[in-house]
Amino acid sequence: MEEKKRWTNHSQMSDPIHHRGLMAELPNEVGRLNDIIQGVLVHADWAEEYGLDQTKLDGSARKTLPIAERFDDVFARDPQPLHRRRPAERRSTGTCRDFALALSSILRSKTVPARVRCGFASYFFAGWEDHWVCEYWNEATRRWHLSDAQIDRMLKEKNQIKFDPADVPRDCFMPAGEAWLKCRRETVHPNAFGHGEVKGLWFVKINVVRDHYVLNGRETSDWDRWREADFSQRLIRPQELPLLDKLASDPAQDLIEVLPDWLP
């Protein structure tokens, strides 16, 4: 259990700081925590489905914020207690990473080992879509479980999701390292993985590094700026393969600093 304690320590991004007392008051059951998070956050990409105008979202909508700042924004929009469900127009708007970070932060505050994971989900569109979830240790089952705090009733119905979002099946979410190794073994085509129109092994590489970083307390990094890479730079050089294989095989190993080669 000593190794698991590593995941009860807050990172700079997951530390709720002045909101720690509020975390202690929340229930312990992961499904209920998912419901609470859904009542204060809304995903920018699905804004229209919640009746919001995407053109009016502010700058924080697509930027992963430290959880203390995210909850500051939640209360600035609506000062009710966290467990009170807000209408969509009074929720803080973020991305899947914000949902995963919120759940990880709450669970860590309750000394439950939890960590954000970067990989790919099969339950949004055809193929495997770039996605972030929370992975938490369940003491009763003695194993890690996946929870997608973003999946509310609307998304379950729209995407015909049948599983419990508090216990996402392992064949529905694939950590980036596993995706990379499947591509390298040619058991899955790299173009099955991506973000929107950006697909292939280069994008899998992006998430391999991001998953390695997040497992070392770095939920955000320069790798989030992948859109800045020119199309001519979206490639993998042969000399990169050994390191990427290593990170994919053991993403939780001690941090290896990898700098994006498209940034000045």
Our estimate of the beta-strand percent is 5-15%
Low-pLDDT segments, ≥5 res: none
Strand count, sense and barrel status of the largest sheet are: 6 strands, mixed
Rounded radius of gyration (Å): 18 Å
Helical residue percent?
25-40%
Q: Which sequence of SSEs, written as H and E, runs from N to C?
A: HHHEHEHEEEHEHEEHH
Q: How many independent structural domains?
A: 1
What would you call the shape? globular
The SS-based structural class is alpha/beta
**Span between termini:** 42 Å
Strands, total number: 8
Quote the average pLDDT: 95
Number of helices: 9
How would you characterize this protein structure?
Residues 91-145 form the Transglutaminase-like domain. By secondary structure, the protein is an alpha/beta fold. The chain has one domain. Helix content is 31%, strand content 14%. It is built from nine helices and eight strands. The strands form two sheets. Strands 3, 4, 5, 6, 7 and 8 form a six-stranded mixed beta sheet that branches. The longest helix is centred in the middle third of the chain and has 14 residues, at 96-109.
